[in-house]
Amino acid sequence: MGLAGRLRTSFKNMVAIFNQQCEVVEKKVAIRTNIGGNCIQNPSDLDANYDGHKGAGYSEKVGD
To answer: What pTM does this model have?
Structure first.
């Protein structure tokens, strides 16, 4: 993919993030208070998502 294609993809991602996290109300930008989990979490990794899990990132059970 050439530079124009990468820029086009980056612009599309930026527009998607804006639409998910902001809204235009009376010609002013307002930040949404509740975005939900079905949105872009990381522009570098579009498949990353938020699952609501808070706690240890990794856990392992060790036996004898």
So the answer is: 0.59
Q: What is the pLDDT of residues 37-59, one digit of tens each?
A: 777 777 777 777 666 666 555 66
CA pseudo-torsion sign 15, 39, 10, 43 = positive
Return the sign of the alpha-carbon dihedral for residues 37, 38, 44, 47: positive
Q: What is the pLDDT of residue 41?
A: 73
Alpha-carbon span 44 to 40, nearest angstrom:
10
Over 5-40, what HEC string results?
Answer: HHHHHHHHHHHHHHHHHEEEECCEEEECCCCCCCCC
